[in-house]
Amino acid sequence: MLEINQLYMQLPNMSIKLENAVLKPGLHVIIGPNGAGKTTLLHGIIGYGQQIKNRGILYNKRKLNDTSDVISFMPQENPRFGIHVDEYLRLTGNSNDASQSIARFSLEEFLDQPITTLSGGEFKRVLCAQVHHENKPVILADEIEAHLDINQKYLVMDWLKEEAKTKIVIASIHDLSLAMTYADSVTLMHDGNFIELTQDKNKLSEDKLSYAFNTSLKIRDVDGRLMVIRR
To answer: Where, by residue number, does the polypeptide cross the bilayer (predicted)?
Structure first.
């Protein structure tokens, strides 16, 4: 269980304040327009950034000052070094065999390639494999679907949903229909404010969603999947 007792961040154009949020295993999705504060919130949870003014976070009742042994974080972009994919995967510090992680994301053909030669989508799969190999109890992912084609989007989201059976997964997602299809709970942000906080996706308000994105939106069930479309 991840408890965010207090998180206060001050930015030039907004502030983010979150108190008494409790997250259990599941896929917790953060949505909101560009500039809503999604990335900043994820940074605050891991303790990154000078914007943090107050931060009190517990994992299984233990205070988290250093999150590195508990949380795997996948940023929007990660620096690329002139090393091969197999070397990059070993940067996790996990000395166990990474073959399952490599196979999970179909990376066998890339192992001897330099990271710098990969496309954005291929590199994203390497980052996913790295997080899979770390095998930490909490996963944070920022814009998880970025750079992925439609097939790879579903592959990655299927993986996160599987991980969320036993782990706490927090992911910011731009694709609203993808978010609604996979989420267990939805947090809706706008200008640093929480319009909805860990809300059951089936109870998400269309009016609040429309307000946050400044356009008229509706949620519809299409063959068992929740889709967000313009009215």
So the answer is: none
